[in-house]
């Protein structure tokens, strides 16, 4: 009986011993993380060691200037990396890329080559390991089997993966002590259209770089002590939330296996209401798995810094030290991949879905975002000297303007069938995008707007200390204080919050690749920086560099322009829904509506003008996202149908039959039969569930007959999801009333056991 499988698996899950691995030692002592860190990465330092000096210098020059590699340099690097990788057991290499599927793709090629020579009329074949510059730079996977949204058809399947020289190569351990060389790559079509996430991110970083440098040149003067920055880049720290549950129990839940979330199941009496899980003691088996992951990730040069229990039971978070966005994105993909694989070894299952369990918190991936120059200056660090606060404020207002103008686009960047369950569920930011700045910064902006001194009492005492120390710049119009970084309070309800020296985009989904939302954010900010640059030029007139007064005038202009995007209150409250509507901020609750915003003129124009997306690429994105949404919902509907018909209803039938048997036996004995009352209560629920699940099937069939992609997605949202919901309510009712020993599916209480 299946329910027996459930009980046995629960018991097993509690008695499994944690897996132990031997951490490497040196001189009888465990090696430190810093020793292990990056040992599987062909970093610049390794390159320097393995390459002739002039070749290495060429490579660095080409890297800095964003030039393509010449053949000679590529050949030399290929040879060096081949030797390095083979020494470490590599048998294969792969161009590792990120198609538009939220995951990574790889095709392995062996280093094996055959060389033939002819001696005495006989062909002699020699086997060798080779790897050429052209193999390093580019390979040609069949592009027709990846989503392209109509940009590719099967008969013109050519697509290229090209080494992204900004991301270093690395090896991952393969089977039986072998290894595989990974070459981080972008994936483009024969005509150069982006078929992946990363090429778009690269482009958006480049426009942001140019726009930010231009703004800097208008507000800063350079000399020998203060050289002009040559490059600006996006910094990114991705806090990854996830659930870890016992693998045995997971295998008994087809809904989790197929869709990543539970389609039936109700809350146990005790879940997260005692608030005792967040930052609690990490359970033993879980900790064993996490620390093995961290060890593997350290070898790959992924700088994991933080691990802790999250709010929901069985929920955890891992956070890295921030890095350049391109690398941070690769490292987040690796983190997810390694967590997935290592959890397996520990008989655990990691869930990246945004809302695997109804009623407890879902998972997000907070994207901590800022901009830095190659001099190491963070543009969003307010703790800079007061006279540099202008720079901070200019970049700050540019971000505000970008989020205000393109909030709906940002919403589109995080939309998915799975994230919809999380957004607006009163535990995650709602579908309204707004910016939280904190009381102090808010007061500073208000003071500048109103042309009055900052009211220190309104902003906390530490700020007053700054004033007392006399570091405040008096501009007559407004007093510009040095803003202390740690004074910003936290607002967990905001989708986009300033957190000290960076913005935290909290609405991003845990499962998705962050490339797309970050690319959209980069593009929007690049575009408003261009706008701010124009305003500065206008204000400055003939002067090449805008004066402090000019800068302040532009800052004030933008503070006034961006008032409606700022919100300091509770984003979960009903008042905010009304207030946001009054301000004209869109509240986008379902994904298909969000995707349509991609093509709205103000967004499409911006993405085209910045050169981040071509018209064709944008339409293809739109198509892929809509289609994926519809497919995801369809898979869920079909899974739910099977689950209810094959497991939930039969459990109810079995229980009813038990009750009926017992009732008739009691009746034969001339005794009262209270089971009849229960039977009478249960029967209408069972029949209604039968009706609902039949209706779900009908709706799914109707959906299958649709062809237009937009129609499909809206039908999924408006017809299929409500039909699933109606089914679930009844199934959950049965879960509560059917005898526990007949229930085949592990319940939330069991999935949430501390293991
Ligand atoms: P919090 O606890 O407020 O979320 P943390 O200091 O723990 O803040 O940082 C969270 C994440 O933000 C970490 O991954 C961290 O590396 C990253 N981070 C910190 N500074 C920056 C920055 N300038 N740019 C991007 N990410 C950053
Ligand atoms: Mg955070």
Question: What do you see in this structure?
Answer:
By secondary structure, the protein is of the alpha+beta class. The protein contains 24 helices and 22 strands. The strands form five sheets. Strands 12, 13, 14, 15, 16, 17, 18, 21 and 22 form a nine-stranded mixed β-sheet that branches. Strand 6 (112-119) and strand 7 form a beta hairpin. It is globular and about 105 Å long.
Secondary-structure topology with pairs:
Elements: H1 2-15, E1 25-26, E2 29-30, H2 33-36, E3 41-42, H3 44-50, H4 53-64, H5 71-87, E4 90-96, E5 108-110, E6 112-119, E7 122-129, H6 133-137, E8 138-139, E9 159-163, E10 169-173, E11 179-189, H7 198-219, E12 232-246, H8 247-251, H9 254-259, H10 284-299, E13 304-309, E14 315-320, E15 323-324, H11 325-345, E16 348-351, E17 365-373, H12 389-413, H13 417-420, E18 435-436, H14 439-450, H15 461-468, E19 473-474, E20 479-480, E21 496-498, E22 503-505, H16 515-540, H17 548-561, H18 574-583, H19 591-596, H20 601-609, H21 615-668, H22 675-704, H23 709-737, H24 748-751
Parallel strand pairs: 4-11, 18-21
Antiparallel strand pairs: 1-2, 3-10, 4-5, 6-7, 8-9, 9-11, 10-11, 12-14, 12-15, 12-16, 12-17, 13-14, 17-22, 19-20, 21-22
Helix pairs in contact: 4-5, 7-16, 10-11, 12-16, 12-17, 14-17, 16-17, 21-22, 21-23, 22-23
Bound molecules: adenosine-5'-diphosphate and magnesium ion (MG).
